């Protein structure tokens, strides 16, 4: 899809990229305990005896977490494994009370799937590429070490300990930073549509481990490094660029890439070594003896499939079939919140073309100026539908609608109340309009003569003058008809 190459002293190199995305599952409680998953709470206030691994505490799987993982797998057309199992991944870290993480190495709940991406979602002619998904497994998160609370000690916050994660592992099918960005955007969009993760990378509920290696075009795969916990799409793309260039420079200077775990420093825009990369056998994985295998029956799978919403690609195709341009359809479906807002607008009976054009030009423009997101919009779909309805039935003109909309943004008032209060109703009084046209023609006899001698472009001048004289309240169609008749 994209011919991305790094030019070194010995010629061109290609990049091979795979992503492991950790997505926090949408659930009010953790994977194996009833503790809250709420963000931003006081340290260690969302912690149960299970989360702290107190003696005798046994994990109990959260059905909702497994359900969300299955729904996500179905959304990417992946194989759903009716039989899966939890394993223990053994390692010591101060924020891991158990001394192991419960994960799924050998038998994940979701198998192979794929996501189709385009480099430019807004360009209908942009080429597409299918990125393979190797697996989705469910695991528990660790806690968090806080190094800035004390001069000589680190504190431990276990609020995240035991929070349910989906690890979504791609195949090494990605070959440029741009493709990686397109993949992560599309994956985040799908998760938000499905409702299985909020995709909030700033809060850490979605983060990516980035595997990068370089090779001569078509050559053997090189040694890969893994850059951990990248928490924005922009940082991920920058990490790939830096790390790929670092590896090329290293190899060409006679060095060798070491399989290791690295961190990305967004301030210095570089990756740095964190530790040597462990292999699976280093973690001494074995089946968790406290947990039975997970077996999914037909009724559960049918309920999961029936609960899926219309997904981005299907919604985009439907919008295009409704007459929207490919560009508009792409913009409206790229983010779940935009699509849901537009669906609410359509549910109020608004014409699809009228609604999409207004949403993308007027509302998005206003929110940009205000520095607000669509979720923070002072005008909701019902209020917007009322405003657009007043334009559609001829109560107000398009130019008056812009004025009304500005007042709505400031006051939150209903469009009809503003129109009534300000006396902004459009007039269809042909007599009043004809009288103004007569005055304008009398004051501009030279322009009338020019128009009649073939200067058709002057028609716009007469329309503008008439609208001005009518204070923008005259029906534009009636003005056009009466001017054509008067000017001959």
UniProtKB/TrEMBL annotation:
Gene Ontology process terms (BP): glutaminyl-tRNAGln biosynthesis via transamidation; translation
Ranges of residues in domain Asn/Gln amidotransferase: 340-487
Enzyme class (EC, first level): ligase
PROSITE patterns associated with the record: GATB (PS01234)
Listed EC numbers: 6.3.5.-
Molecular-function GO terms, alphabetical: asparaginyl-tRNA synthase (glutamine-hydrolyzing) activity; ATP binding; glutaminyl-tRNA synthase (glutamine-hydrolyzing) activity; transferase activity
Reaction catalyzed: L-glutamyl-tRNA(Gln) + L-glutamine + ATP + H2O = L-glutaminyl-tRNA(Gln) + L-glutamate + ADP + phosphate + H(+); L-aspartyl-tRNA(Asn) + L-glutamine + ATP + H2O = L-asparaginyl-tRNA(Asn) + L-glutamate + ADP + phosphate + 2 H(+)
NCBIfam families: gatB, PRK05477.1-2, PRK05477.1-4, PRK05477.1-5
Function: Allows the formation of correctly charged Asn-tRNA(Asn) or Gln-tRNA(Gln) through the transamidation of misacylated Asp-tRNA(Asn) or Glu-tRNA(Gln) in organisms which lack either or both of asparaginyl-tRNA or glutaminyl-tRNA synthetases. The reaction takes place in the presence of glutamine and ATP through an activated phospho-Asp-tRNA(Asn) or phospho-Glu-tRNA(Gln).
Record's subunit section: Heterotrimer of A, B and C subunits.
Protein name as it appears in the record: Aspartyl/glutamyl-tRNA(Asn/Gln) amidotransferase subunit B
Organism expressing this protein natively: Sphingorhabdus wooponensis
Phylogenetic lineage: Bacteria, Pseudomonadati, Pseudomonadota, Alphaproteobacteria, Sphingomonadales
């Amino acid at each position: 899809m994209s011919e991305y190459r790094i030019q070194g002293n010995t010629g061109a190199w290609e990049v091979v990229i795979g992503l492991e995305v950790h997505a926090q599952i949408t659930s009010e409680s953790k994977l194996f305990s009833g503790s809250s998953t709420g963000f931003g709470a006081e340290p260690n206030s969302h912690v149960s005896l299970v989360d702290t691994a107190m003696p005798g505490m046994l994990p109990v799987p959260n059905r909702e977490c497994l359900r969300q993982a299955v729904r996500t797998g179905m959304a990417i057309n992946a194989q759903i494994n009716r039989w899966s199992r939890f394993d223990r991944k053994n390692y010591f870290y101060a924020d891991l009370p158990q001394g192991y993480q419960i994960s799924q190495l050998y038998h994940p709940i979701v198998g192979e799937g794929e996501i189709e991406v385009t480099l430019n979602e807004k360009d209908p002619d942009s080429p597409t590429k299918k990125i393979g998904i190797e697996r989705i497994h469910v695991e528990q998160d660790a806690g968090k070490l806080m190094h800035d609370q004390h001069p000589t000690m680190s504190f431990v916050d276990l609020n995240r300990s035991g929070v349910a994660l989906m690890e979504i592992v791609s195949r090494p099918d990605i070959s440029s930073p741009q493709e990686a960005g397109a993949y992560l955007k599309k994956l985040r969009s799908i998760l938000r549509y499905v409702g299985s993760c909020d995709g909030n990378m700033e809060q850490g509920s979605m983060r990516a481990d980035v595997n990068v290696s370089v090779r001569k075009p078509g050559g053997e795969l090189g040694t890969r490094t893994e850059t951990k916990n990248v928490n924005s799409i922009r940082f991920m793309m920058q990490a790939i660029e830096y790390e790929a260039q670092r590896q090329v420079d290293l190899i060409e200077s006679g060095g060798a890439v070491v399989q290791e775990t690295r961190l990305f420093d967004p301030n210095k825009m570089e990756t740095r070594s964190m530790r040597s990369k462990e292999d699976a056998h280093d973690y001494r994985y074995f089946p968790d003896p406290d947990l039975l295998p997970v077996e999914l029956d037909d009724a559960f799978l049918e309920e999961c499939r029936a609960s899926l919403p219309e997904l981005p690609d299907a919604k985009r195709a439907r919008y295009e079939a409704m007459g929207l341009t490919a560009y508009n359809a792409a913009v409206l479906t790229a983010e779940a919140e935009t699509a849901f807002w537009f669906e609410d607008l359509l549910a109020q009976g608004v014409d699809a073309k009228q609604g999409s054009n207004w949403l993308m030009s007027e509302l998005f423009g206003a929110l940009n100026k205000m520095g607000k997101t669509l979720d923070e919009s002072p005008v909701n779909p019902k209020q917007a539908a009322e405003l657009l309805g007043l334009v559609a039935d001829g109560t107000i003109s398009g130019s008056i609608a812009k004025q009304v909309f500005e007042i709505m943004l400031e006051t939150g008032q209903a469009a009809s109340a503003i129109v009534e209060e300000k006396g902004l109703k459009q007039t269809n009084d042909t007599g009043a309009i004809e009288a103004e046209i007569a005055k304008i023609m009398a004051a501009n006899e030279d322009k009338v003569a020019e128009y009649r001698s073939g200067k058709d472009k002057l028609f716009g001048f007469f329309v503008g003058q008439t609208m001005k004289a009518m204070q923008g309240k005259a029906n534009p169609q009636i003005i056009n008809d009466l001017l054509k008749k008067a000017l001959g």
